[in-house]
Structure formats: C-alpha cells, structure tokens
Design goal:
7 strands, about 170 residues, five-stranded antiparallel sheet
Length: about 170
C-alpha cells in the first residue's frame, strides 16, 4: 500500500498531460458501500474515456491512495517536507557484475500532492510546487560506485530523449 503503478495513460501521455499541461489526474472512484464486484469496477473504469487505470482494483487503489495521502499529510505536518512523488522511468541494474539480484530505481521524481474532498469523491493527484528532480540517491550511487554521471534533466526537455541519454551513459559504462 505504499505505491501504485499507473498503467493508463502511458508514460509519455501522462508526462504531457500531468507535467507539461499541469492537468491533475483524477482516479476512478467507487463507493465502498456499493456492491460492485472487482470485475464490474474494472469494467466501469475501462469504459470511461481517458480513465486512469492502475495495477490494483478500484477498491484496493482507493485504500492505497488513502494510505499514501495519510502518510504524506502526516510527514508534511510533522517534518514540513513533501515525500509524495510520481516517478517517471526506472533504471534496472545489479549491485555488481557478479550479482543476480536486480533492483529498480526511479529516475525522475515529480513532486505531487494527493487531495480528496470527501469520502464520496475521487482522489486527485496534482503537481506540488517543489521542483522536478533526478533521483538524488540513484545519482549519487551511480557516480560514487560506478563513476557514472546521469545527464542533467529539465522538465522542458523531451522525456524519451532523456531516457535515451540515460541508456547510452549507463550502457557505455556497464
């Protein structure tokens, strides 16, 4: 319940609408008291034009979003720091050439806020005012452990071009 994978819209469509055009993302909603089966709920989401689809049923998704919102809100109130991010792109790798354990690390972190007007309304994901960054932990690890410097990124840049440049830099050094 600490993450949610957005399947639809696709990564580039999501980037264009959410980051470039700053359009909030509205998640499908189903009243928990309604007796919809998971298949009916999934079917309802599939028939909506432009509906968001995730790797969870709508009810599970609502629980995950509620959990994420609660944790982010608590952290913001106690620490004054936003900890909620939408990740774009993942770098898959291993600790060493001999390791078989793979890890996936997010590349671009887009700060977001998650709002919810009431228990009868959908969750809405919006851009947060913090800046979009390259994952600082990943950047440090690649530089420190492997001597790989990730390319700079500006939110005005082309996302596919950035991913291509990351692939070139990481492939050349591995």
């Amino acid at each position: 319940r600490s993450n949610l994978r957005i399947k639809i819209p696709g990564i580039y469509d999501l980037w264009d609408s959410f980051v470039v055009n700053e359009s909030p993302l509205v998640f499908p909603f189903v009243d928990e008291n309604e007796q919809l089966t998971l298949e009916e709920a999934a079917g309802a989401a599939n028939t909506e034009t432009g509906a968001v689809q995730t790797n969870q049923s709508i009810k599970e998704q609502q629980r995950t979003l509620r959990n994420l919102r609660s944790k982010a809100k608590t952290f913001m109130e106690e620490q004054g720091v936003n900890v909620l991010y939408l990740s774009f792109g993942f770098l898959r790798g291993t600790e060493s050439d001999h390791s078989k354990v793979q890890f996936d690390a997010p590349l671009i972190l887009v700060p977001v806020s998650l709002s919810w007007e009431s228990i009868t309304s959908p969750f809405v994901l919006s851009l947060h005012e913090d800046e979009i960054i390259i994952n600082p932990t990943l950047s440090y690890k690649l530089d420190n452990d492997f001597g790989i410097k990730l390319p700079d990124f500006n939110s005005e840049d082309s996302l596919p071009a950035f991913f291509e440049s990351v692939q070139q830099v990481t492939s050349a050094n591995h």
